[in-house]
Design goal:
13 strands, six-stranded antiparallel β-sheet, alpha+beta, about 290 residues
Length: about 290
C-alpha cells in the first residue's frame, strides 16, 4: 500500500506528477455491435433448464453457442462467484484481468468476458442486468466486479490460521471434481479468477484496498449472458451471503442462487457467429 513514505520528495516533483490519464486499452474496436439484435431476441427466449446452487456450494452447467443463461437471486441477497470455460477445452477459461483492463472494475450490459491466452476471444456477452441502476456509489463501489479473485482456503489460512473448505475456490474445485470427473489437482489449477456476480465492491479512497458492502441484490434480480461459444460454467454461492460483513464463514446468512438456460430459434441469430480465437501467429519474435 502506498501509505508509508520513506523516500524524500524530489526537487522536480511538479514536473513528475499530474500527467493526464490515458486509457490503456481503448475498447471501441471490440464494442458489442450485436446488442440490439440480442435485445430483440430476448422476446423469443424459451427456458431450457434450471440449476439451483445451494448455499456455500457450487455446481456446473453447460451452455451452447446461441443460448442465453441467467444467474438469479431467488430467496435472499446472495453473491456468486462465476467461472467460465470453453466446454471443449477447459484450458481456455475466463481471463478476469484482461477483461478488467478492457472494460473496468465492474461489468454490465454490452461487456464481454474474454478468455485466457493464447485464445483471447469473447466467451460471453452480458445482455441484461437488473442492477445496472446502481451505477457507482459515493465510495466508488459498484456491482459485478472483476477485481476480487475468489475467497479461498489459502488466504483464509494465511490470515486466520483456519482450514475452511467451503470458500468459493474450494466450492468450484469440488464441483469440477464431482460433476465433470476432473482430477482434484487439475481442477484446482484450472479454477480461475471470477466474475463476482451481485457483489458490491470497490477500492477504499485512502489505502486503495479492496472493500465489500452488503449487496443490493434481491429475489428476482438477475444477470444475463449470451454464449458466444459452447461453455462450461461453474458457479459458487459465496459463504459470505450478501458479503455485508465477512466471507469464508459459516456465520453469514446465505441463500441459494439459480442458473437458468434459455434457447431461441436459430432464425433470430442468423447474423451472429461464434466468437473466434485470436489469430496472432504466436511467433513471439522468435525466428
Amino acid at each position: 500500500m502506498k501509505i508509508k513514505k520513506f523516500s524524500e520528495k524530489p526537487s522536480d516533483l511538479k514536473d513528475r506528477i499530474g500527467a493526464k490519464p490515458i486509457v490503456c486499452y481503448p475498447n471501441t474496436h471490440i464494442e458489442e455491435k450485436n446488442l440490439s439484435i440480442l435485445h430483440s431476441v430476448r422476446d423469443h427466449l424459451v427456458k431450457k433448464e434450471e440449476i439451483i446452487i445451494p448455499p456455500r456450494d457450487a455446481k456446473t452447467f453447460e451452455v451452447k453457442f446461441g443460448e442465453f443463461f441467467r444467474i438469479e437471486s431467488v430467496e435472499g441477497p446472495q453473491v456468486g462467484d462465476l467461472n467460465l470455460f470453453n466446454l471443449n477445452n477447459l484450458e481456455e477459461k475466463f481471463y478476469s484481468g484482461k477483461t478488467r483492463a478492457l472494460y473496468g472494475t465492474h461489468l454490465s450490459v454490452g461487456d464481454k468476458m474474454f478468455s485466457s491466452f493464447p485464445y483471447l476471444r469473447s466467451l460471453a456477452t452480458i445482455t441484461w442486468d437488473t442492477l445496472d441502476w446502481y451505477d457507482y456509489d459515493k465510495d466508488g463501489g459498484s456491482v459485478h466486479d472483476v477485481i476480487g479473485t475468489r475467497c479461498d482456503p489459502y488466504t483464509s489460512k494465511l490470515l486466520t490460521d483456519n482450514d475452511y473448505h467451503y470458500c468459493c475456490h474450494s466450492n468450484l474445485t469440488r464441483a469440477l471434481v464431482k460433476e465433470k470427473n476432473v482430477q482434484l489437482d487439475h481442477a484446482e489449477k484450472i479454477v480461475h479468477d471470477v466474475l463476482n456476480v451481485f457483489m458490491l465492491t470497490g477500492f477504499t479512497n485512502d489505502t486503495k484496498q479492496y472493500f465489500m458492502k452488503a449487496s443490493p441484490v434481491r429475489p428476482g434480480d438477475y444477470l444475463e449472458f449470451f454464449a458466444e461459444t459452447d461453455l462450461l460454467g461453474a458457479l459458487s454461492a459465496c459463504p459470505g451471503g450478501d458479503c455485508g460483513s465477512e466471507h469464508s464463514s459459516d456465520v453469514a446468512k446465505c441463500y441459494p442462487l439459480k442458473v437458468s438456460i434459455w434457447t431461441v430459434d436459430s432464425k433470430y441469430l442468423n447474423d451472429i457467429k461464434p466468437s473466434a480465437t485470436s489469430n496472432y501467429n504466436r511467433n513471439h519474435g522468435i525466428d
